[in-house]
Amino acid sequence: MLEPSTDERREQGVGDFGGATVLFDLDGVLVDSETAIREGLLAWARERDLDPALVLGHSHGRTNAGLVALVAPHLDPETEDLVIEGHEAARGDTVRAMPGAHDLVAALAADGRPWAVVTSGSRRIATARIAAAGLPVPGVLVTADDVTEGKPRPEPYLLGAERMGAEPSACVVVEDSPGGTDAGLAAGMPVVAVASTTARAELARATTVVDDLADVARLLLPHP
Which of 8, 15, 157, 200 could link 4 by a cystine bridge, Cβ 3.0 to 4.6 Å? Predict the structure, then answer.
């Protein structure tokens, strides 16, 4: 059976990715944790006498362990991961839901659409941020604890698809970072990139670049 074309789907009031299993990144997509992450990393950089600009410049879309391996290869990634987590957790009261996040996940639930979260953070940090933002806990949550190679490698999104019981080609990724975008594309999935924390030009490799979650909703859900 032939799938309807994009134009036909629009005429029928169906979003461009209607029916796809949705795999969300967490930070910068569903949750605004920018202050907690930035201040936590700056505190760690000061403790370890590292260049703050270098640390921040390479942090987006990477696991803490991956960041440490890149900017401070003389340090133990697992040990430093816990130190960074501690700094970020201490600033957890700054975490909020991204505008439109509550409405989007509620609409997906009402439409019976499967969705999951695939994040570069640890399970402890991810669940704390989801709770702080007042968002529902997804049935599938893939974290840095679950994978050997984090983003920009495809493993996190491939694992997300597997745990959702979906083929990669039947999924759509929602991201906000170049590394996360590359991970989704490498997994064989279309990527909707939200320009919430990154300039649109840096997200140009994504399948589609949008401004906010309201735009994401129009791509994912039926509409009049």
Answer: 8
Relative to beta strand 208-210, strand 191-194 is parallel
Q: What is the CA radius of gyration of the chain?
A: 17
Report the alpha-carbon distance of residue 111 to residue 9 in Å, rounded: 16
- Token pair recorded at residue 186: 């490498």
Query: How deeply is 68 buried, as exposed, middle or buried, from its count of CB atoms within 10 A (0-12, 13-18, 19+)?
Result: buried
Length of the chain: 224
- Return d(Cα 188, Cα 39) in angstroms, integer: 34
Q: How far apart are CA 222 and CA 9, in angstroms?
A: 9
- Structure tokens of 35? 């202050």
Catalytic residues: 25, 27
Q: Over its length of 224 residues, how does the chain's per-residue pLDDT go in tens digits? A: 233 334 443 443 345 798 899 999 999 999 999 999 899 999 999 999 999 999 999 988 788 888 999 999 999 999 999 999 999 989 889 999 999 999 999 999 999 999 999 999 999 999 999 999 999 999 999 999 999 999 999 999 999 999 999 999 999 999 999 999 999 999 999 999 999 989 999 999 999 999 999 999 999 998 65
